Amino acid sequence: MNSKPNILMLGLDTLRADHLGCYGYDRPTSPFIDKFAERSVLFERCISHAPWTIPSFTSVMSGLDPIRSKVVASPWNVPNYKPVRFDDTAPVLAEVLRDAGYFTLAIDNLLEMGSHPSWFVRGFHEYINLTDSMFLRHHHVLAEQVTDRMLSTNIQALDGPWFAFLHYWDPHLPYNYPKRYDAELPLWLPDAVSAPDGRDYLPRRGYADEISGQFAELIAQYDRSILYLDNELERLFSGLEMAGALENTIVVMFGDHGEAMVEHQVLFEHSLLYEPTVHVPMIVRDFRSGVTGRIRDLVQHHDVAPTLMALCGIEADWLTTGAVMPPFGPNPNRRFTVSIQDGGAAMRALRNERWKLIKHYDPRQSGLARPAALERVELYDLEADPFELDDISERLPDQVAALSAELEAWRLDALGPTEPDPLLDSEQRVDFNDYPGDPELAEFYRGLVRPGAKK
Description:
Number of helices: 12
CATH class: Alpha Beta
Strand content: 15-25%
CATH architecture: 3-Layer(aba) Sandwich
Order of helices and strands: EHEHHHEEHEHEEEHEHEEEHEEEHEHH
Radius of gyration: 21 Å
Number of domains: 1
Shape: globular
Mean pLDDT: 84
Helix content: 25-40%
Low-confidence stretches: 133-139, 364-373, 428-442, 444-455
């Protein structure tokens, strides 16, 4: 057995936490993940740095939050969209592990996105790209393809430790699951609760009067995609266990961002900074120690790298903004998390144990080309209003002022007095009328996505 543990890191694209049984969902979407979580450490409140793939995975790999990595959006390949870049001299997880003697493997296609973010390839001895394009309908990488490729590697035969990063695109649109799952999870809607305005609200979905038959079916398709992913993860772990590849292995399983159903009039997309798009699963299992538990502490993606360094006993000259997640290290007592949104409208959200402040920046300040509401804020009491239905910013101006000051102090501490803010210095935007590639998928997005917080 190797002295250093192996690492299996599973990035599950577009997976919101509250559609998994282990996070309280009442549909059987995730029987394997639920059982796996019982033998793991589950972080109940992992908040994504951004509702987009590239910033989130960059934070995982770099150990930096977006304000330091400068990666604040996904590099869409559309006209007038600013390329997304990352410092070529900044270390990334695969490089640090490679230099520590690990064989490094990725099964992924992030390299194909937009302006080709090359930092996702750095440090990997082998980078297996399963597609020559993005996640468009006729190129979408199915979960079974990722599982098949990993099980064919014979990675357990290596003499030294290994690090494998597997990127599962499911349950991302266009919800490409085998049709047999239609019968396993039929159409279903939960009982309604009364929203503050008196309307019926369907938890984890949206207002009842806004959910048409088509939208109800799309929600069911999202859940079926999760069940399909769950079955493929079970097949992956069964194969690795039979091959003896798990005995000395640490597994990190996380979502990069979530997916809105019909909440806040964001339809089957992951823009904006509400809980459905930024509250993601984070599950860590160390097969060596068997440590288990449910952790309430606030964690984010930049915590993954320092946690793995601690678990593997690797000391590296690597300055990250993250911290070792409890119980694997001392409790950092994080007071709040910060998430960002770019790509059409610049926003930041500060979330603490109770309150959530969403700050919309004036587009004239940020230079964004797409029209948006002028600078304003939203405030939610997550204890009393977990679905973020009642914006109380006008009723609690003192609370808004206190949280705004905390957010601004955090920003200035990260940047200093003169460094430009990458979120506000950006020209990044998405115009779906110019969306390249599959016309059918482009039309699907144009028909469904209506960004904007409901007032």
